[in-house]
C-alpha cells in the first residue's frame, strides 16, 4: 500500500501538539486561527507566513496567522518526510514565535493608540522570537530523545532480547 504523501499542512497538523509543549506556542496555536494561503500577499512575495491588522471581533488582538503554502513548499524543498521532521519543528516554531512577536507589537500599539499597527516592525518580531528560541530548541531535543527511546524499545521487542 502506498503511503499518502505528506504536505506542509499534514505535517503542520501533526506538529501542533508537539509545538504546543512550548508555552508561548501553545498560546498562539490555541488563540489564533491558522489559514493556509495558496498565494503570497502582493506586498510580501517571499513571506513564509504573515499576520495582518485584521481584528474582526475588535478585542485588540490579531485573529489569524497565514501560512503561505507555495513559499513554504519551496523553502522545505517539498521535503516533509519523517527524516526532516525535527528541522520542520524548528523552522515552523521559529516562524510562529516571530508572528507572535508581531502580535505582541500590535497589541501594545493598540493599547497605546498609535497610528502604526506594527511600530516595532520586523526587529520587534525577531527580538521576541529570539527570546523563546532556547525553549523551542530544548523542547525539540526532548522530543527527539523520547522518539529515540521509543524506537529502541520497539527494536528490543522485535528482536526478543
Ligand atoms: Zn515579520
Strand order, sheet with most strands: 1-3-2
* Sheet of most strands: 3 strands, mixed
- Taken together, the total number of domains comes to 1
Order of helices and strands: HHEEEHHH
Structural class: mainly alpha
Shape: elongated
Bound molecules: zinc ion
Average pLDDT, all residues? 92
For the record, give the distance between the C-alpha atoms at the N and C termini, rounded to a whole number: 30 Å
Taking pLDDT < 50 over at least 5 consecutive residues as the criterion, the unreliable ranges are none
Helix fraction? 55-70%
Description:
The chain contains five helices and three strands, in the order ααβββααα. It has 161 residues and is mainly alpha-helical. It has one domain (8-159). The protein has a three-stranded mixed beta sheet. It is elongated, with a radius of gyration of 18 Å. The mean pLDDT is 92.
Amino acid at each position: 500500500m502506498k503511503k499518502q504523501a505528506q504536505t506542509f499542512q499534514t505535517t503542520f497538523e501533526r506538529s501542533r501538539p508537539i509545538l504546543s509543549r512550548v508555552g508561548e506556542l501553545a498560546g498562539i496555536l490555541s488563540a489564533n486561527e491558522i489559514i493556509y494561503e495558496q498565494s503570497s500577499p502582493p506586498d510580501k512575495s517571499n513571506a513564509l507566513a504573515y499576520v495582518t491588522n485584521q481584528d474582526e471581533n475588535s478585542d485588540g488582538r490579531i485573529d489569524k496567522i497565514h501560512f503561505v503554502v507555495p513559499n513554504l513548499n519551496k523553502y522545505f524543498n517539498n521535503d516533509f518526510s519523517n527524516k526532516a521532521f525535527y528541522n520542520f519543528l524548528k523552522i515552523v516554531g521559529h516562524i510562529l514565535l516571530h508572528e507572535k512577536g508581531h502580535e505582541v507589537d500590535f497589541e501594545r500599539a493598540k493599547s497605546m493608540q498609535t497610528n502604526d499597527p506594527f511600530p516595532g516592525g520586523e526587529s520587534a518580531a525577531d527580538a521576541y522570537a529570539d527570546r523563546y528560541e532556547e525553549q523551542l530548541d530544548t523542547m525539540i531535543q526532548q522530543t527527539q530523545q523520547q522518539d529515540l527511546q521509543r524506537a529502541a524499545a520497539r527494536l528490543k521487542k522485535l528482536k526478543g532480547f
